[in-house]
Amino acid sequence: MTHQVGRRQKVSSREPLQFRxxxxxxxxxxxxxxxxxxxGYLAVMDRSFLMRQGxxxxxxxxxxxxxxxxxxxxxxxxxxxxxxxxSLWINPRQFGEDPDDVRELARQxxxxxxxxxxxxxxxxxxxxxxxxxxxxxSSATTILAQGISGLYGQTEYMRYYPExxxxxxxIGFTNIxxxxxxxxxxxxxxWLQGHPGLRKVMTDLHGHLIxxxxxIRPAVPGKDLYLSLDSRAQYLxxxxxxxxxxxxxxxxxxxxxxxxxxxxxxxxxxxxxYNPNNRSHVTMEALxxxxxxDMLEPGSTMKPFTIAAGLTSGQFTPNSMFDxxxxxxxxxxxxxxxxxxxxxxxMTHIITKSSNIGASKIALALPPNAxxxxxxxxxxxxxxxxFFPGESPGRLPAPSLWKPIGIAHMSFGYGETVTVLQLxxxxxALAAGGVLRPVSFLRQNQPVAGVRxxxxxxxxxxxxMLETVVSPEGTAQQAAVPGYWVAGKTGTVHKVVNxxxxxxxxxxxxxxxxxxxxxxxxxxxxxxxxxKSAYYGGLVSAPVFSRAMSEILRLEDVPPxxxxxxxxxxxxxxxxxxxxxEKG
Length: 584
What we know:
It contains 20 helices and 19 strands. The protein has 584 residues and is α+β, with helices and mostly antiparallel strands. The protein has two domains: 62-226, Penicillin-binding protein 2a (Domain 2) (Alpha-Beta Complex), CATH 3.90.1310.10; 231-273 and 286-567, 3-Layer(aba) Sandwich (Beta-lactamase), CATH 3.40.710. A hairpin with a 5-residue loop joins strand 2 and strand 3.
């Protein structure tokens, strides 16, 4: 009896367990059935939703970089090109949790792991951070193949300058984002810059590219730019200028060669220069395009324009005589000096002997505004039309300074400031028969119209005067080019230091044209602070003109003149030590 009671108790206690078990099974089956039903519904009835959610996690839009246009010289030779590179980046919000990833990435990129970790930590609020820009694609591929989670690569373009230092200031450079920041790269940035495209791509869980899905908008590369510069002439001019700056232990030098008929800049050189492909140690002195930016007093190189004012006025002819005895001339309380007592000379010999007194007497015989007006007509006091970034306009004295001594000083190039590019342009106007044209750094494919400044007769008279400067009697025998007639003018000016003319620091200038019988090219050369021995324009800058112009004429196949043997360079003549303001 007792045994039966115990058995009934065991059976009754097992029944609740079995009941609960059945409930759990039913519930689990119900959950699974609900999941299957939901999965079936999503797969059949709401398939577009699943596809949309999947695409949002694996398909996204990506920018396609566009290459920058090539800068070429007038012959089509590349001066600036864009080469593909790879930049590595991470998402700081997702990368850096694993110290091993940071250490491995630092090792691959030769970075300090602590510095990299700190950099990532500071960028935690961002979703994008470059860890290395402008890697060559092969190195980047090797690093990405290491499988570092959260490290990505993207194709970009880096600017490369094949010609290096000779073109540095003229071409300029771009920043790391491919934007022009100096020189031609800056001025024509909108022309050279491409427009990025857009593509749809599929990536895996780690963001690595699986395949391209669709091209939404193609990238449009930048347009090529053809410059007026000739890489051969540019190299030769830079070489001659650099050698002379070194030989004379000068501070700097600048030179510009122009095509007379088009106003094109054939070559423009600056020393010191720099390597545009490695600017880690570049200085501001090297960055500056001195030929376009620096303003300087031009000295006696302005005398041809004083002569132009005198001849144009009708008061003088080339045969007009001027008494320069005894080598000094009083203007108010000031004394103007010549290097020597040249006696009574005609207008041609004012140029040949570079007489300050003769130039002053011409200017003072004219109305006060005549000389400033003539200078303005030849382009001084405003920019050349080159559109080069940072070009200086120069400066002419204000009307309040057009007093006798101010006009006298202006007549031989003191009191006004010009750029080397302005000087070259003004002489190109003389070489073009008295027609002024805008300066262009772009290749011109058709004739360029200009503005007539003086009559062809007056212009030819001035050129004949300038030819005597390169004769054995003149101040620039070393500017002669064998086989060609040359016309030009020297200038030697004291530099202004701390507001005063320095008695020992000079700028040496020479500006000339060749062949003078039918001018094709003008070349202006300035050597800043020559310190080895000579400092006259005829002894320091004229030799650069001679060597560079000779090469330019040869490169351009300009036929030599006839009966010009006497114009070959000869031994320089000794010149007396001048006083301040007497430079020829």
